[in-house]
Amino acid sequence: MRAVTTGLAILLLAASSPVHAAERLYCAAADEVLRLSIESDISASDKGKLVNFRGVVGIKDEKVPPAFRHLRFDTPVLAQQSMNDQELRLQLSSHLQDKQLVGSFELTIFVTSTRKNERFQGNYDIRISTSPDNKTPRDIVLSHGASVVCDLH
Q1: What angle do CA 85, 147, 78 make, to 5 degrees?
Q2: Average pLDDT, whole number, for the chain?
Q3: Which end of the chain is more exposed for a tag (fewer CB within 10 A), N or C?
Q4: Which N-terminal stretch is annotated as signal sequence (predicted)?
Q5: Are 88 and 120 in contact (CB under 8 A)?
Q6: What radius of gyration do the chain's Cα atoms show?
Q7: Number of domains in the chain
Q8: Distance between CA 105 and CA 143 in Å, rounded?
Q9: Contact between 91 and 107 (Cβ < 8 Å)
Q10: DSSP-assigned letters across all residues of 48-101
Q11: With b meaning 16 or more CB within 10 Å and e meaning fewer, what string describes 107-121?
Q12: What's the gap between Cα 116 and its chain centre?
């Protein structure tokens, strides 16, 4: 009986922490180079794993080819994630292709908890590189970083 009571107490404490109690994650950034929006469900049963992850990036920089200025992404581009009560780290990576170019997209987000337990603030870094084909080395057409905010609801 004591083991059952202890187990229930641990489950209640874990469920009351900000990250485990959260159901949704929202991240947003807007500056002179891009607009970023990310949302995801958070698995309460799988230690904060992000599920149904999706987002969009609208890039304003003219150096980025038009085909790569509006990017939509979902769970398969989420290369790494780490989340606890104090910080959130996301790394997204994807290959891009249109009729004339191939490229790659990398986005890293690192945010830490603020005084409000549901809010995280930090930075993002984005890099887009392109080349005419898969054999030619890619040129970095965008490398930019700025502030991002993430909220847990």
Answers
A1: 60
A2: 85
A3: N
A4: 1-21
A5: yes
A6: 18
A7: 1
A8: 10
A9: yes
A10: T-EEEEEEEEEE--TTS-GGGSEEEEEGGGEEEEEE-SSEEEEEEEEEEE-SS-
A11: bbbbbebeeeeeebe
A12: 20
The CA distance from 67 to 126, in Å, is 16
pLDDT of 10-56, one tens digit each? 333 334 344 444 589 999 999 999 999 999 998 888 777 899 999 99
Is the pLDDT confidence value at 83 over 60?
A: yes
Percent of the chain with pLDDT over 90: 66
Hey, what are 135's tokens? 């054999």
> Tokens for 12?
């209640």
Q: Which domain holds residue 70?
A: 2-152
Please state the length of the chain. 153
Q: Which residue has the tokens 């549901």?
A: 118
Indicate the DSSP class of residue 116.
S
| Separation of alpha carbons 60 and 66, rounded Å | 10
- For residue 19, report the phi and psi dihedrals to the nearest 5 degrees: -70, -45
Pairwise CA distance, residues 59 & 123, whole Å? 17
Q: Which residues touch 4 (CB under 8 Å, ≥6 apart)?
A: none
Cα 33 → chain centroid: 17
